[in-house]
């Protein structure tokens, strides 16, 4: 696993061209260079050179970054900012008592007590038996819904869905820089997956998908071999490969917000454009980040409200009352916009409820 100092060369590659500013949703609101990759890299370079220390102020900018990766897609030096930010967060966590306390609360209360509570009170839907079997990693949100929609959809095309009781994929630990807890999430996943002789893992949440695909970057060699033998696919890729065409019971119009972490948007577009009785209305900036950044959303409320406002305007312009997405985090953010008379839901839930 790469440590903060292992990213020295990547940080040094930044040419300070500033092209990232045009893509960064936070920079567009703050106009502050410290809140975009260029400024963050200048600060981190200072830390590496020993001119700055990893302080609360630097940590604030690390938290403010949405980890949407939009800047990396246009960076001429090809720098992947998200992994650098995570390693820098990890560095800060090691030295900050307050961050350690927050991690403790996150570990035992938010991701210890709540998921166990969910496991007790949710009833998993039972899959029909078929010859072709896949494992479904629904993530915390779908676990709460009993994994119903995915089981229904995949059963309707003759696929059996196994739904082991996985813990959280660990993305909240990763974004806080708590690599130690994140590695435990990987271990837990491997321990469960080893019990099955199935290598196809289906996801519906974009953040879970990205995190599972990234597991091999952070794990040890033995676990990497197991992970390399697995095939991670989101359900959209799977349905498109099988050319599945659904028909809604009645005509509906929807719009769609693209999560930053989704693999291939073309697979989702294929479903949106090939489902009968479905009218897909593209919203402006459908691919711009929803603004959910667990910590910053509360700490930097004013900044996040600006992102929310522009998303709300774009949703309203579509003249549809149903907003779909494919990530629990985005679903929570869109619901928190308090869009009266609008229905916000996961695209797979929408399809499953209407076929
Ligand atoms: S686009 Fe890339 S190289 Fe240019 S300033 Fe931003 S991070 Fe640096
Ligand atoms: S990852 Fe997103 S929020 Fe962070 S600096 Fe890049 S564009 Fe801005």
Outline of the structure:
The chain is an alpha/beta fold and 355 residues long. It is 55% helix and 11% strand.
Highlighted features:
355 residues; alpha/beta; Rossmann fold; four-stranded parallel sheet; 8 strands; globular; binds iron/sulfur cluster
How would you characterize the overall build of this protein?
The protein is α/β, with parallel strands linked by helices. It folds into three domains: 4-95, Fumarate Reductase Iron-sulfur Protein, Chain B, domain 2, CATH 1.10.1060.10; 125-238, Rossmann fold, CATH 3.40.50.1860; 245-354, Rossmann fold. It contains 20 helices and eight strands. Strands 2-1-3-4 form a four-stranded parallel sheet. β7, α19 and β8 form a beta-alpha-beta unit. The longest helix has 25 residues, at 97-121. The protein is globular and about 65 Å long. 42% of the residues are buried. The mean pLDDT is 88.
Fold blueprint:
Layout: H1 8-12, H2 20-23, H3 25-30, H4 37-48, H5 56-64, H6 70-74, H7 81-95, H8 97-121, E1 133-137, H9 139-144, H10 148-156, E2 160-162, H11 171-176, H12 179-193, E3 200-203, H13 206-218, H14 221-228, E4 231-234, H15 235-241, E5 247-256, H16 265-274, E6 276-280, H17 294-299, H18 301-317, E7 322-325, H19 328-336, E8 343-346, H20 347-354
Parallel strand pairs: 1-2, 1-3, 3-4, 5-6, 5-7, 7-8
Helix pairs in contact: 5-7, 7-8, 10-20, 15-16
The protein binds iron/sulfur cluster (2 copies).
